[in-house]
Fold each of these.
Amino acid sequence: MSKKPKENHTGHPGKTSLVGKLFRLLTLLMCGGIVYAIYMMLQPQTLVDIDGHDLSGSSPRNLHEVLTKAVEGNYSVTVTESEINHLLANELVAKQGGLLEGEASVKRVLVRLKKDLAEVIIVREVFGYEITVSMYLQIQQMEDKNGIKTKIHLHGGNYEKRSVLPNIGGRFGKLSIPQGFLNAVVPDYIKIARAMQPEIDLGFQKMARFEILDKRLILDPRRPTRHVGGEGAPF
């Protein structure tokens, strides 16, 4: 005599088994995604495309002096990606304290410049293994009847044009992460900003206009002599 298939409490044979299989499959996919994300976070991003990453080449200009003269002479100046990274290597001394003091240290801070976008990268060594974390910066300037307003956005834009996800804040290793995930490393960037305050003051506080291009940054202390484009117009 053939056995009847087991029925669940709803009276439908095999329904619970199917739901259980789908649940296990979903759980497996989620665990796989988490493992992959952790793997990508632990893989340091490629830095060889950044000018000045290995401190090769001729000695750069004294940027502090270059920026001071540009402000005093009221003329624009172009600073290269290589010069910025040489400056960071020579002037910035960053250490990580807390529970990992002695086991984790900041090796380098680098900047990658692309059109309208800067990526500030912290290269850290943890237990002899190199990891990277980065934050994107965008500069937006608006001109109205009250003058020029500068806004710094801590992100690199949307994942996609029609994406409903939060903006991309930066990268943990090779993994692009939403803006909110960077809150854990914001204190490190604040320390870096404080250490570089004289250069930041000359390069941004005393400059009226900024333009980020591939591999270079254009700074101009000259303010517009007339208002163009109406209130709130970008330039």
Note: DSSP finds five helices and ten strands in the chain.
Amino acid sequence: MSDSVSATLTVQERTLRYAEVQRLDDGPRLPGIGGQTFSFDLAGALLQQEADEEQTRQVQEALQEMLDGSEARDLRIGVHPPQSYSFFTPISSDVPVRDRQRQLLQQAALVTGVRSKKELHMTSETVRTTQDSDGEPFMWVHVLAIPDAADQRMARIVDALPVREYAWVPSSEAAARVTSRVEQTGGSAKEALRPYTLAVGQYATHTEYALSRNREWYHSHYSEEAHGAENRAYFAVGFLNRVGVPLDGIGRLFVYGTDVGLGAYEPFQTIFAQDPEILNPLQTVDSRIDHPPDEPSAFAPCIGAGMGDYLG
């Protein structure tokens, strides 16, 4: 196994997508990529409190076959918002670390309705620091909470795989890492004056929004009601308004996910005065695969999950 190689996967309805990402000094390399569609609701089988043991076994066997001969040290699971509790919360920078954890647990209880922290596997990370209207510093912290039963189920699956450990990764953060790689190739003077990048993830179950500033993840949002171009644009504008980002601050606009077509994003072009681009993660890696997937943008969160450091 190699510390520089991660196996990654995402689940969306009945489809599992996986990749191997090798992190090298000159950029990421993609030794392998693929997917499998199951006869049952894959997300439900893996990520809910209760699961069918036979379905869990089928997933485990599929992953064993996919990772046979892999050099990956760890497995990273890109998890979409409806499959987890994913939220941002502000915390004063002056609050001691122990009190911060208490605040995060209290906020998680409000968001999830869970009474005991033992029911959740929760991770958090500081995404950015800023100041309030009085000039006092505070942090925007992202919290990702998975039902503990689902986390324990994944632990049992991983025990049978040739990897040492695993981590859950927010799909929007993973997608933002891909847009950052795209933007490292350079940009126009106009884009430099518009420091924000918006990536819109289109799925049958939901629409997710990943916002970056100067190639760093900034904030995220999702909606299960944003169906169709007009609705997706409406929720995008509402999201940006809530986080105080002007519409003319968006310098790049990307679209990823399933059944993506730029023709359906004409309202975005009008609102942001930007041409939407399909986010192709294969353009950001040194690909060593002979048969690329038919819909590369659906793999953006999967490949992006392997680009960051999520494990200690």
Note: The longest strand covers residues 120-131.
Amino acid sequence: MPATLALADFDLPTRSASGFLLRWIVPRLEPVHLYSFLARRLPFQLSAPQSDIIIGMGHGDENAFTGQNEALILEVGRYDPREVEGKIIKLLSCQAGVALGPDLIRNGAACFMGYTDDYVWVCDADLASRPWADEMAATSLMPVIDGLNALLDGKTAEEAFEIELEGYRRNAELEEDELIRACLEFNRGNAVLLGDGSARVRPRPGLALPFRILPPPPIILPIS
């Protein structure tokens, strides 16, 4: 089964996090991804039912996950259960673990991984064209990447979740910057795993290096 990977990319936070997913996760998955302007409701509706894993990066709140330009993708009570039934779902977005995550489980998702508060990290705006090179952002985002790669290696959701938590703990112990350390501890404290921790997906091939990453397009903000 293919994966559904929805990656918003329209402001600095989404550019930063999606950049790490483009570098470390996208090359391991099937070549159809909902990136940038494709990270919207209709493309998600069409691709999600055929997937075994859903990975989303975008903004959100307790009840909803959004894609490009904050277009709604998943909202409590407003999606077809076929989109999530039997799937492992990871949402790198704020607060989705409060209400949306439990709702996904009630509607048949095998498990959900997300956060009950805002996901916070420090990133370098000067590296917006090469976000995966941002060492400050990597301190927080690489634990997420390591957990996702564990899932794609065939580990259970619980094992992958523990790898992410351990990454935050290890990086916090080594971090000298108080703000970055506080972000790591905050994200670790708000990370949640709901549903069946023994769930797993079909293993994907390992990351073949070297490969070339095309720079993402410029961030275009609306004129107010």
Note: Confidence is low (pLDDT under 50) at residues 220-224.
